[in-house]
Amino acid sequence: MNALPATLTACWQRLHADNQQRPLTLLQIDREQLWCLYADGGSKRQHALAIGYRQLGHGPLRQTPPSPFELERAIAVVEDQIMPLARWIAPGTLHVLCEPLALLRPSIGERKLSRDQIEHHFQRLAAYSEGDPLANGWPLPDNDGAAALLILREWLHHLDCLEVWLE
């Protein structure tokens, strides 16, 4: 496995010092890969997945906005990557480092979003991809942002996280 990014390591040290007893997951979604650090009590695991926002945003997601078919293909790609992790990651606190997700913050300074809020953003993207003109009332993400949103949404659903902190 490649060396962990410095930003991920620094964030992990800060978060883990404050949260050593509860399950903690930290993701860094980069252009070409997703880094995952997980701790539950005394055990710590790390994993790198071959999905990143640029790789996904220029692979299955080629249009802006992506077509419904492209969204479905991208969901399948992400599910194939993250589902094997479900056996060793317990639901707990999720923190994410990912520049394209900054547009999801409700306001300056707020970092916590619920799974329902992420789902709402994703459903608006899906509606816009289907041509719904009413779905255009928010900052439409570019392909990188759409891919990062899709990755986060799938993680929240399949690994049973109720909220996420955007770092």
SS class: alpha/beta
Instruction: Spell out the helices and strands N to C.
Output: HEEEHHEEHHE
Separation of termini? Answer: 24 Å
Shape: globular
CATH topology-level fold name: Nucleotidyltransferase, domain 5
| SS element count, helices | 5
In the CATH hierarchy, what is the class? Alpha Beta
* Fraction of residues in helix: 25-40%
Assess the beta-strand content as a share of residues.
15-25%
Please tell me the CATH architecture by its name.
2-Layer Sandwich
| Uncertain spans | none
How can the largest sheet be summarized? 6 strands, mixed
CATH homology superfamily name = Exopolyphosphatase. Domain 2
What's the overall average pLDDT, rounded?
89
When the domains are counted, the total is: 1
Major sheet: arrangement of strands: 3-2-1-4-6-5
Quantity of strands, as a count: 6
Alpha carbon gyration radius: 15 Å
Can you tell me about this structure?
The chain is α/β, with parallel strands linked by helices. The protein has a single domain (6-166), classed as Exopolyphosphatase. Domain 2 (Nucleotidyltransferase, domain 5). It is 38% helix and 19% strand. It is built from 5 helices and 6 strands. The protein has helices at 6-18, 53-57, 68-82, 115-129, 143-158, and strands at 24-29, 34-40, 43-49, 93-97, 112-114, 163-166. β1 and β2 (34-40) form a beta hairpin. α3 packs across α5 (143-158) and α4 (115-129) packs across α5 (143-158). The mean pLDDT is 89.
